[in-house]
Each structure stands twice: as structure tokens, then as C-alpha cells.
Specification:
five-stranded parallel beta sheet; Rossmann fold; 7 helices
């Protein structure tokens, strides 16, 4: 069976991306990174999602980005609430080079495992304007992977899978429902309460709410 390293955050998107790749016949090696995010409750969600997916292995790494700061997700800066998602600019929830860091860790583990497929649940439609969620970024990182590793220069070809890159949130949710996913296990909120309840007002909560509304189904996270 083919194997893939999947970045698993515990959110809706990474869960769906992993499930799509699994349905395509890949055995999953899940990587979850504790980077000092204020929504660290998502780490518990990632463990639940990993079990639901039946991953072969779930590796958790800690790379604390709080010392770098410059993001509402890794500092004491307030998370924006009820923001106009159409306004230009990159919001304060952007974590400097986060997906570059996460994909680099996934690449290192993949090379160590002799795995050449890496999965990330980035989306270029329903997102907050982050530059590291765009197809241009993914294509550039894939080129990097194939010149920056021993496996790459010795002839192996790494591929970065982005099954959600061109999907809207409602389409992602419909796809997940078709695959039988348990979205009640996931946590998308950037600023949840201590007991894990979503705030309902951050960009991620708003995008999730729009997605479930447009998909015509109730969000099981809100029914717990």
C-alpha cells in the first residue's frame, strides 16, 4: 500500500484532506505540530481525528513559535472577531511562514520514512488571505522538496497533495459527509473557551458556519 505523511491539525480541512487521500488508497502517517498556538485544544481534536481515520502512526512534534510572535495565534494580541472577510490584506492571525515550517517538518519525516507523498489541507478559496495557502506556494515548496533532500537528488520525486485547494468550504463538507466523516470531532476555532467551545466570531468559525449553512447540514460541533 502506498503511504503518505499528512499534516493533521484537528480541524475540518485537514481531516477531510486526509480522508480523501486515504480513500485514494494511501496509508496515513499523521503529523501534528504543537507550535504554541493559543487554540491548543485542537491537539486533542487531532488525536480524536487520527483515531477515527485509523492512521498507521501519529507523530506529535513541538516547535514553539511563540518566541517569534507577530501573530494573534502565538501571542497575546486579540484574535479579530466578526471581521469583514472581503477586506484586503493579511489578518493578524497569519503565523509567519507557518505552512513552510510545517511542510518542512513533514518533508523531513517523509524522507526518513522513505515516503514521497505529503498531504496538506490548504484551500485557496474559503481562506483568510494567507499567502501560504495558495497554489503558487505549494508548487514552489514541491520544487524545493525535490532539490533540498537526499531522496530528491537521488531520483525520488516528492509530491505535495492538496485535495482541497480549489474547493469551497461547503464542497469540502459535502465531500467529507460522503466519506462518512465525524465533523463533531474537529475544532476549527482560533480562540475557543477553556472547555473547547468555539467562539463563533473568528474568521475560522465564520467560514465554518458559512460552509455548513451552504452545504445544508447542521454543524455537529455545535450540537455537542
Amino acid at each position: 500500500m502506498r503511504r503518505a505523511v499528512v499534516l493533521l491539525s484537528g480541524g475540518l480541512d485537514s481531516y477531510t484532506a486526509a480522508a480523501i487521500v486515504k480513500a485514494d488508497g494511501y496509508a496515513l502517517q499523521a503529523l501534528t505540530v504543537n507550535y504554541g498556538q493559543r487554540h491548543a485544544r485542537e491537539l486533542e481534536a487531532a488525536r480524536d481525528v487520527a483515531r477515527a481515520l485509523g492512521v498507521e502512526r501519529h507523530l506529535e512534534l513541538s516547535v514553539d513559535l511563540r518566541a517569534i510572535g507577530a501573530s494573534a495565534l502565538t501571542s497575546n494580541v486579540d484574535v479579530p472577531r466578526d471581521r469583514d472577510l472581503q477586506e484586503p490584506g493579511i489578518p493578524s492571525t497569519y503565523v509567519p511562514a507557518r505552512n513552510t515550517v510545517l511542510l518542512s517538518l513533514a518533508l523531513a519525516w517523509a524522507e526518513a520514512l522513505s515516503v514521497h507523498d505529503i498531504v496538506i489541507g490548504v484551500n485557496a478559496l474559503d481562506y483568510s488571505g494567507y499567502p501560504d495557502c495558495r497554489p503558487e506556494f505549494v508548487a514552489a515548496f514541491e520544487r524545493l522538496a525535490n532539490v533540498a533532500t537526499r531522496a530528491g537528488v537521488e531520483g525520488a520525486s516528492f509530491r505535495i497533495h492538496t485535495p482541497l485547494i480549489a474547493m469551497g468550504k461547503a464542497e469540502i463538507i459535502r465531500q467529507g459527509i460522503e466519506l462518512g466523516l465525524q465533523y463533531g470531532l474537529t475544532l476549527s476555532c482560533y480562540d475557543p473557551s477553556p472547555d473547547g467551545r468555539p467562539c463563533g466570531h473568528c474568521d475560522s468559525c465564520v467560514l465554518r458556519a458559512h460552509g455548513f449553512r451552504d452545504a445544508g447540514v447542521a454543524d455537529p460541533q455545535l450540537l455537542r
